Amino acid sequence: MRRLRNVKIVATLGPVSSDYATIRALFEAGADVFRLNMSHGVHEDIRARHTIIRQVEQDTGRPIAILADLQGPKLRVGVFSNPDGEMLVEGAAFRMDLSSTPGGVTRVQLPHPEIFAALEAGASLLVNDGKIRLKVVDCGKDYANCSVTVGGVISNRKGVNVPDVVLPMAALSEKDRVDLEFACELGVDWLALSFVQRPEDVIEARALARGRAAILSKIEKPAAVKAYDAILQGSDGIMGARGDLGVELPVYTVPPIQKRLIRGARAAAKPVIVATQMLESMIEAPVPTRAEVSDVATAIYEGADAIMLSAESAAGKYPIEAVTTMNNVAISVEKDPTYRQVIEASRVIQRETIGDGIVAAAREIAEATNIKAIACFSQSGTTAALVARERPRVPIIALTPLMSTARRMALTWGLHNAICEPQERFKGAVLAAIHVARRDGFAQVEDMIVLTAGVPFNVKGTTNILRVAPCDERLISKVDPE
To answer: pLDDT for 45-83, tens place per residue?
Structure first.
């Protein structure tokens, strides 16, 4: 199945999308990656969905990526004597402390001593996704006396955000460690790491994963934005989690942050997902708002590798329609001449390695002549990622002998992934590329393609050869270039 757009679609699975028929329909509607949210459902639910995705993959013959999204530490207040909660009034005093006594209108438990250890006078505490805002007046190792700056009803176990400080907490809770091991043993392709604040959080997750899954860092905290370059360097991919960013930072700062995340990840040749609230009205409605369509289109114009659906496909009334809408928006945007102008104006010129030069030359040759596709033979995915960074005007065919590589590459912009036999000589790679290009409708026998690869084969990061090849096997030289 050939997609008619380059940006990829990530669909979250959940209660309304957990059977074979629905997951198959989501794939056929346009989903390239399925997200398993480890915050919801027991391991057996996750295992069942994973099994169905792999069955859909086998039945359709197209590699599908599976992303396990770890929950991360959850900071919540305790409980209140009044089960309906209490109304906090602007200007009132309110205390948070470690006492387990049920709370009232003047105080509540905050069972996280690490928060008190990091707080300073003047810091903000946000409750219930920022609907209630508190300012710390004074604090100690087991309390924080606050003033209510934005009031509202506070009730049992509402979430707490601490935007102003870097908390002395690991990104992985004990639950996350158990979930990480389960997901890796299950065989997921990507792990999304929540609550990232520093590059050390990524290093810890990578050590636990031991190469069994690629690490995708969620940028959802101000500290992560500040340390973005270092976090990006240690990650295999990035997710811009705009919902949490919009809680902890002024909402008007989120669009430029989104642009920075996309530009940085693209320059590093690492996939970046734009996520959260993209088509949220479709949880209840069969069509999105115009503002939501514009939001999705903006992410595509900016060059994101993937756009994501959360509750829309996991718990909404119209999961298949949501994927279909996203697919149609992507096709429409990518047909717009302005799209190419924006993408090419934002291209980062990277000429630091031989591989950089090879893929740039492949793009320029393909766009200057009547080349139908760029094919890249990639053991680890490095060559394919470099080609995708160029955002060429022609399709990209990524060939690999490893299903694990093909699945991970399903998240990357523009890649049409195909499994081929292991190759020892370049001529074999050329013939394999020709076969896939013709089989999957990218080229006819009279057409030409460009092929990039690294020789010797099976060595990561050795992209060093480029060839223009006819799609007629009879015209391939009998002289092996090697």
So the answer is: 999 999 999 999 999 999 999 999 999 999 999 999 999
Inform me whether the pLDDT recorded for 481 exceeds 60. no
- Tell if the pTM clears 0.90, that is, is over it: yes
Task: Quote the distance between the C-alpha of residue 267 and its chain's center.
Answer: 16
Whether 479 shows a pLDDT value over 50: the answer reads no
Q: Delineate the domains of the chain, giving CATH numbers in brackets.
A: 8-72+172-336 (3.20.20.60), 86-161 (2.40.33.10), 354-475 (3.40.1380.20)
**Which whole number is the average pLDDT over 148-166?**
95
Beta-strand relationship, 152-154 and 86-88: antiparallel
pLDDT at 478 over 60: no
For residues 441, 444, 450, 454, the Cα torsion angle rounded to the nearest 10 degrees is: 60
Q: Tell me the mean pLDDT in the region 335-339.
A: 97
Q: Give the strand order in the sheet containing 415-419.
A: 415-419, 396-400, 371-377, 448-454, 463-470
Burial of 42 (C-beta count, 10 Å sphere; 0-12/13-18/19+): exposed
Q: Helical H runs in 276-400?
A: 290-301, 311-314, 319-335, 337-345, 354-368, 382-389
**Active-site annotation, residues:** 35, 76, 218, 276
C-alpha 273/C-alpha 216 separation (Å) is 9
CA distance 105 to 318: 40
283 vs 75: CA distance, rounded Å: 26
Containing H/E element for 135?
strand 132-140
Tokens of 262: 């996309």
